[in-house]
Design brief:
heterodimer; A: about 70 residues; alpha+beta; three-stranded antiparallel sheet; about 20% helix; about 40% strand; flat; B: about 70 residues; mainly beta; about 15% helix; DUF1659 (chain B); DUF1659 domain-containing protein (chain B); DUF2922 domain-containing protein (chain A); DUF2922 (chain A)
Chain lengths: ~70, ~70
């Protein structure tokens, strides 16, 4: 099913800001993920309702499974 | 004279999804990042984009930036 890579950052308010990418490469390259997250913070080109992104929080791959239920 | 004041900026990554089996046309998927700072430079957005590309499977077709500006009488 559909998998997504979630990159979670913390903003100045301490809230979590999530960016997602579809079709992540697997197995995931942890170093590449961290490098990209570091670059997002270093470049400081994104903002959020709670201020700039200040720290990496977590990264994960999320898989969504959908099971249709037949109604009679 | 009027002035343009940028109010909003969005980064769009356009990915190549392949070719549509029926129409034979290329299919693209876009991923938008809103909340781009209006002061962000092309260099900054490019640097981020090229590092995000290898994290997913599609090939990056192009990088777009979408800016909205408000025009006012100076």
């Amino acid at each position: 099913m559909a998998k997504k890579l979630e990159l979670k950052f913390e903003n100045q308010d301490g809230k979590v800001v999530t960016y997602t990418l579809d079709n992540p490469v697997e197995p995931v390259d942890a170093i590449a993920v961290q490098t990209a997250m570091d670059e997002i913070i270093t470049q400081n080109a994104f903002t959020s309702s709670g201020g700039d992104l200040v720290a990496k929080k977590s990264a994960r791959i999320v898989e969504r499974n959908v099971l249709d239920i037949e109604l009679v | 004279m009027a002035t343009a004041n940028m109010t909003n900026s969005t980064l769009r990554l356009v990915f190549n999804e392949g070719v549509d089996a029926i129409s034979g046309k290329e299919v693209f998927k876009t991923k938008s990042f809103s909340n781009v700072k209006t002061v962000a430079t092309a260099d900054q957005l490019y640097a981020i984009s090229i590092l995000l590309e290898p994290l997913q499977q599609r090939s990056l077709f192009k990088i777009e930036r979408n800016d909205s500006s408000e025009l006012r009488q100076a």
